Amino acid sequence: MEHFDVIIVGAGLSGVGAGVHLQKRCPGKTYAILEGREAIGGTWDLFRYPGIRSDSDMYTLGYNFKPWTNAKAIADGPSILDYVRETAREHGVDRHIRFRHKVKRASWDTQAARWTVEAERGDTGETVRLSCNFLFMCSGYYNYEHGYLPEWEGYESYKGRIAHPQFWPEDLDYKGKRVIVIGSGATAMTIVPEMAKDAAHVTMLQRSPTYVVSRPSQDAIANGLRKMLPGALAYGITRWKNVLLQNYFYGLTRKQPEKAKQRLIGMVRRALGPDYDVETHFTPRYNPWDQRLCLIPDDDLYDAIKTGKASVVTDHIERFTQTGITLKSGRTLEADIIVPATGLDLIVLGGVELVVDGARVDMANTLTYKGMMYENVPNLASAFGYTNASWTLKADLTCEYVCRLINYMDAHGYAQATPRNADPAMARAPWLDFSSGYVQRAMAKFPKQGARLPWALHQNYFKDIKLLRRGRVDDPEMAFSRRPPAQTRAPARVEEAA
After folding, report:
1. Is 265 left (phi over 0), alpha (psi -120 to 50) or beta?
2. What is the tens place of the pLDDT at every residue in 158-183?
3. Could you tell me if 466 and 381 lie in one domain?
4. 435: which DSSP letter?
5. Fewer CB in a 10 Å sphere around the end CB: N or C, the chain?
6. What is residue 290's three-state secondary structure?
């Protein structure tokens, strides 16, 4: 069986970053990246719908070691994909990737102090087994095989074209067509203004409004700094500027939610004018950051609405018809194309089955340690980004911590590092305190967080710098052990013949 010091699962934004961090901070360690699909990029290769882009600024979504140099701060999907692939090529990470290796199962053996990873080959169907000392899950948080689709009455009767954003049909021609986009999240607000450029009309059909923030697609300060300063320095300054601004605004929404709400809604009113029904279509029933805010560049959604190319309808679906959708209000919307931008199907650790010393791990009953490791699961970490900031901010910190942990174990001769909770009565809470439907549908399957550190989960970059970059690796909740001595078997007793 082929063996590596580290196996990374997933060759997307997190997995490529993990490979670079490992090379930089743990030189000499052998590693492989197992990727279930045929390409680098993860989310940014999978999603191909019109207008696909980031909903975070690229100065924080970009890696801390590779400056983002594109003029646009809110970048399109192909540009982000190029950035990830360029990173992999520049650092030679692409040479460590094994494509079409979908990890199904990982089993830990304390006696051997190693994981055995089973992956299904997409090209041959065979099961490949590899082993490693440390397993790093960078497979994201949603099911790549299918998205979430509600059960609508009459759905099968619709005779037009249905295009799910997660599996966008390459041959879809929407020029001059009537389109309904169902949903009010980041995906819907990306698709609507882009399709509106060529469609006859695009209707965004939502059950309830979402908070929307418009920002310039280009960061004038960042572009100015690049003209005066070395690229890495300009990038670092811009990155910290955006982190501080985001952290300040998030803090304001938590401390003064009503004030923040009025500020956000006021921005929409100014953009759409006094005659638009902002109360119905852009005034959520929840406080800011109880769900993720939607970021739009350069007022593109508002411009599509003002020109009449797009509209927002806030109502509930009664049923699908052959030609469109009937709403509970009695209104009927006709459509040639329907796009159900209805969310993701969240899964834990890419759906990989974990087994520790022959016992299957029930992740739903497991505590998360520092938001990246798991109670009683040795030598395993996962990358999971922030809900209120850029994914990569947390992923970079997680990679740094994993490398610190591996180096600490090497320095002290340890073979196993296992988070242990000594307080079984400690209160538990959901992994994420988020009211979004796609989160609430899945939280029962996810690990829990505890009432105190290191079991409580931060959504704060500054606290995580203290915890992950500067905090102790050898804290009391982390149990280290050396490889057990090899067991020697007594020679078999031979009975003399009678």
Report:
1. alpha
2. 999 999 999 999 999 999 999 999 99
3. yes
4. -
5. C
6. coil
CA distance 67 to 341: 32
Task: Answer for the pair 7, 136: CB distance below 8 angstroms, yes or no.
Answer: yes
Q: What is the CATH number of the domain that holds 164?
A: 3.50.50.60
| Tokens standing for residue 171 | 């041959």
User: Is 497 inside any structural domain?
Assistant: no
Which residue numbers in the chain have pLDDT < 70? Answer: 435, 486-498
Q: Tell me the per-residue pLDDT of 188-233, one tens digit each, with 9 for 90 and over.
A: 999 999 999 999 999 999 999 999 999 999 888 988 998 889 888 9
How high is the pLDDT of residue 498?
A: 28
Radius of gyration of the chain from its Cα atoms, rounded to whole angstroms: 25
Structure tokens belonging to residue 335:
């459509």
Residue type at 404 in one-letter notation: R
Q: Looking at the 3D structure of the chain, how many domains does it have?
A: 2
Rounded to 5°, the CA angle 315-321-325 comes to 20
Strand-pairing partners, residue 373, are 369
Residue 458, pLDDT score: 82
Contact 165, 190 (CB under 8 A): no
Q: What pTM value is reported for the model?
A: 0.91
Tokens in use for 34?
């197992």
List the one residue out of 9, 1, 3, 2 whose CA is nearest residue 135. Answer: 9
Spatial CB neighbours of 408, under 8 Å, sequence gap ≥ 6:
414, 473, 474
Structure tokens belonging to residue 431 = 């992994």
Give yes or no: residues 304 and 392 share one domain. no
Asked whether residue 59 falls in the same domain as residue 100, the answer is: yes
> Are residue 330 and residue 359 in the same domain, yes or no?
no
Quote the pLDDT of residue 493: 35
Is residue 231 included in any domain, yes or no? no
Range of the domain at 413: 2-144+345-481
